[in-house]
Amino acid sequence: MLRSRWIAGPDAERPGPLVAALTDFRTDRMLDLPGVARRGLSLSRLWPSLPGAVGMWLWADIPGRRVGSLSVWRGESDLREFVRLRAHVEIMRDYRHRGTLRSRTWQVGELDRAGLWHAATASLA
Predict the structure, then answer these.
(1) How many helices and strands, by DSSP H and E, does the chain display?
(2) What is the Cβ-side half-sphere exposure of residue 3, based on CA atoms within 13 angstroms?
(3) Whole-angstrom distance, CA of residue 18 vs CA of residue 45
(4) What is the pLDDT of residues 53-70, one digit of tens each?
């Protein structure tokens, strides 16, 4: 599995509790994987300016035709605002019928990046 570097958000130093969100999109066809990955990478460029964003990783499992993110937010309302962001809505509209999306959110007491990544990979296995 490939993983991006940690991308800090404007609330990177925010103490807990926080909300973690894991997304896992599996494309139906390998041909769609590069486009999904490229659009996700483009969206990640907004990350440092998103209100309530603590930090995130992008990840890819190329043989499995899967891409996703593990993001950390100040709260659920910040996550919902991101989901409604125009750029995010456009990506979802363009790709929703080209694969299967799974997502999971959970509360975390404090930012423990190693622990978060471990929990995410266990969920993805």
Answers:
(1) 4, 6
(2) 15
(3) 22
(4) 999 999 999 999 999 999
